[in-house]
Amino acid sequence: MSLPVGLLRLATVLDYDSKKGLLEVNFDLSNITINNETTGKIQIPFSFYSVGGLFIGGIPDPGTPVIVGQGEGGGNKWYFVSFLVSNTPSIPKLKSGELLIQSSDNTLITLNKSGVINIGSVNNKIHLNTTSNSYIDNFDSKLSFTQAHRHVIGPIKRDLKPNKNVSENSKLESVLFDDYQYSIGLDPSATTNNVNNNSKNPPFIENRELLYEFLYSSDVTDELQESSLYGKSNQQKTKFISQNRRKSRSDTLSLSLLSPNFLMETVKGTVIDIFGNILDINRTRLPIGSNDFTIRSEGNKDKVAAYLKIREAQRKSIVYHFEINAKKDLKGKNGQIKLPDINSSADYARNRSRFFFDVDKEGLFKLNVPASSETGNIPLLTRYENYSSISDDDNNNPNKVIKKDGLDIFLDSFAKDGGVISIEDENGITTTKDRITDSHLKHGTPYHNILDTCLVHQSATHISYLFEPLFDIATIPTYSASDISTNIVSPKITVGGSDANAGGRSGSFNFDGSVELNIGANTIDRHSLWLDTAGSIIGNIGRDKRNISAAVTMDGDLLLQVGGNGVVGDSRFKGANDAFRPGAIDIRVFNAGFDCTLIRIDNEGVKIVTPGRMILHSQGDMLFRSASGIIMDAERIVFHDREFLKYPIVTA
């Protein structure tokens, strides 16, 4: 029987042919026979399709009722007309003025006329309100993996039992990898849960970010392998058997020059290593959840005591972590590149030092700042301005886009005299010019000429009134600013070439105003400050309105040792005398005539000389004793109002 074109029939979806993109349907033959055919194939219905790639659609599940219609032409071709909802209660709850796209109750998108877009489920969703200009989401976790960074926010999860069937490459971005990770809670040895009973073990949370230096897909390895890529013959990369920790989203606290592309790491929240251990400020595993039942919940009859022990230990855990994978000069002997020896503690393991700042839950912090290389930066005292702000082009418009000499930022120094220490390499001065003075920027301090530190010690001029034979000026050392073997501060720093010596710097602090510092005391010794320097302290201190440079009250004794053994173990100073040497205290005080009173205590004894009067007064006994002799030499000596002249006056 031939049916008229346009006849509509009921049908039920049977299956989907993915190769041909057709649906197989079963016709409803209750009233009429269609050429004795009980099934047919129709093109799968799409909500929208464009040859340009625009598409909205899906595959109807078997059993879905549809309405089909017969088209023109032979072959009884049938086409999809519409869906037919036979089970009315299965229709999602619809709202007037709202569009709904849904695959299940937990996966839906709604758009309404009020400017609201919801993506997710009723309870967990992204909420966008274009009318109130707001964005809200309430998911438990946020994971972001780009070519620039990894960012994990949510409950702490670690791959505690690695599954060898899970691909390495899936442990970073795969949405399925979460199912293989374990949540770490209050007691790491127990399963996490939020039940309000004695089994409660709430999971820790973290906000962890790892920033790369280069594009992640560049697969940057260590400097040895990377440098070989630029050589004449590429060395083949070593093949490894073990799983690569750095391809896992659980990886944390592993910055190393062995993987230099991992540049910077930040963790907010309880810091837990890749194996689920809670760490203290020294990154040592805390014994929480161990077999010591006093600090774990499972197996402990006294749950309250166990809880308090756990919380006491967790106060030591790190709550904030920031670290930079500090780059190092890897040039070794004979120009060879050498990665830091992880088994060497030479030079205080300086080549393995990284910048990090850790804070524990009691607020105790630990800061480590590496030293710069011999060709590293010299932090100068400068102010910064864009050329667009300082040029008079475009009617002094400060917002113009304009550059000079290919630069955007121009500097000017606020150091004393524009700085006094030149920065050079084998080709001469390396610093840019001060935009105001047109002189090359130099290193220095803001308030004093650092080269003039202890100026009166740099020349014998101010004590030239000393005389022989009682005092030999030549026995007192002077420190010449132009003599590299005796100067107090070197007037030149070399930042390039074989003689580079700019290294060993860890920072520059500049406070434009005063600093008020209050330091408490530790419990064991009641100490307030430990100070240990590998080199000398060079300082210039100004004076206040009362001409006071330092006013210090000490509740206890003042103990001062001068001289002794030097600091050993730094390969940069192998020629230095680090053995025991006698010390000296040399105090020189200016008088009005620019001469100096000198008090010197050294290996020869004690010397006190002054161009003015010297008064010794004692309310008690004044004792003089010498195991050798006492010499008194003066033009005039008075004892008990009796005068003695060195050269008596002869009368005729």
Strand content: 25-35%
Give start-end ranges of low-pLDDT stretches.
none
Q: Number of helical segments? A: 5
How much is the radius of gyration in Å? 41 Å
Highlighted features:
five-stranded antiparallel beta sheet; 33 strands; 652 residues; 25% strand; OB fold (Dihydrolipoamide Acetyltransferase, E2P); seven-stranded antiparallel beta sheet; mainly beta
Overview of the molecule:
It is a single chain. With 652 residues, the chain is mainly β. Among the domains are: 8-90, Beta Barrel (OB fold (Dihydrolipoamide Acetyltransferase, E2P)), CATH 2.40.50; 98-137, no CATH class; 142-226 and 245-368, no CATH class; 382-494, no CATH class. It contains five helices and 33 strands. It has helices spanning 170-173, 223-228, 303-314, 387-390, 393-396; strands at 8-17, 22-27, 39-43, 46-49, 55-57, 65-70, 78-83, 98-104, 107-112, 116-120, 125-129, 134-137, 142-145, 149-155, 157-158, 182-183, 205-212, 262-269, 318-324, 355-360, 365-368, 382-386, 409-413, 422-425, 428-429, 492-494, 563-564, 581-582, 585-590, 596-602, 605-609, 636-639, 642-645. The strands form ten sheets. Strands 13-14-17-18-19-20-21 form a seven-stranded antiparallel β-sheet, with no helix packed on it. The chain has a five-stranded antiparallel β-sheet with strand order 3-2-1-6-7, with no helix packed on it. A five-stranded antiparallel β-sheet has the order 8-9-10-11-12, with no helix packed on it. Strand 10 (116-120) and strand 11 (125-129) form a beta hairpin. It is elongated and about 170 Å long. The N and C termini lie far apart (172 Å). The relative contact order is 0.05. The mean pLDDT is 89.
